[in-house]
Amino acid sequence: MIKKKAKHTKPAEQKPKKRLSRKAFDQELEKLQVELCRLQEWVKQEGLRVVVVFEGRDAAGKGGVIKRITERVSPRVFRVVALPAPTEREKTQLYMQRYVPHFPAAGEVVLFDRSWYNRAGVEHVMGFCTQPEYERFLRLAPTFEHYLIDDGIILIKYFFDVSQQVQEERFAARATDPRKHWKLSPMDLESWARWWDYTAAYEAMIKATDSEHAPWYRVEADDKRSARLNCISHLLSMIPYQEIPFEAPSLPKRRKRGKGVPDTVSFAHAVPAVY
After folding, report:
1. Is 210 exposed, middle or buried (0-12, 13-18, 19+ CB in 10 A)?
2. Could you tell me if residue 190 is inside a domain?
3. Is residue 159 part of a domain?
4. What is the DSSP letter of 122?
5. Among 31, 116, 241, 256, which one is least packed by beta carbons within 10 Å?
6. Is 50 part of any domain?
7. pTM
8. Which CATH number goes with the domain that contains 82?
9. What range does the domain containing 231 cover?
10. Each residue's pLDDT tens digit in the chain (275 positions)?
């Protein structure tokens, strides 16, 4: 008797999520940016200190979300820190030392576009630090972050993740757009070539530094619009705040024009009205 082969039911294929239209994205972004402004006032009033770390693969969109977070808030409250490679002097200091001066005072939010986690990523993969230095960092980073939180700092860590295909598409776009050429450095190209080395490094980094007091939050970033909205929405959910009522000020009466004051300020030079 010949047994019939059992029929295998194919799992239901998940339909790809429909990309948000530009109009829908702008509408949602506006709502979130209003909430960021409300958060800003609460941070100022309560004297909160907030540190947000943005890490992830090259071309994952960290800079894009930071831009959307900061474009409607005060630069005196929200500060972006993107440090260059360490100087020869900084290389002789405690590894964390050059980051500490940028930490927030009361009423400030600091966004690190890359951070002390360079040691676990690019420095380790590219051989810019020794193996003992790398291992020591992974061992001590959770303790360092525990100290920050114990001192009252709110620490939030994001990792932006993209697929190989999307990263390749974004690198190609950078190569053809003069406005993005500055984003395509030799180090970026090397990160493309070392995809799997970085995968192993990030896996070890997350495993060693994803703690109860300072967990990592992955942002799926193949779709830039969704990634930006998801990240900002999550950030707002991580900092309890209340809306502070805004009282629209009344414009005071202008003082009288003094004797000899001209109608307009006089200048020797002006920007040409080309447009």
Report:
1. middle
2. yes
3. yes
4. H
5. 256
6. yes
7. 0.90
8. 3.40.50.300
9. 41-238
10. 334 444 444 444 555 578 899 999 999 999 999 999 999 999 999 999 999 999 999 999 999 999 999 999 999 999 999 999 999 999 999 999 999 999 999 999 999 999 999 999 999 999 999 999 999 999 999 999 999 999 999 999 999 999 999 999 999 999 999 999 988 888 888 888 999 999 999 999 999 999 999 999 999 999 999 999 999 999 999 999 999 999 999 999 999 999 999 999 999 999 999 99
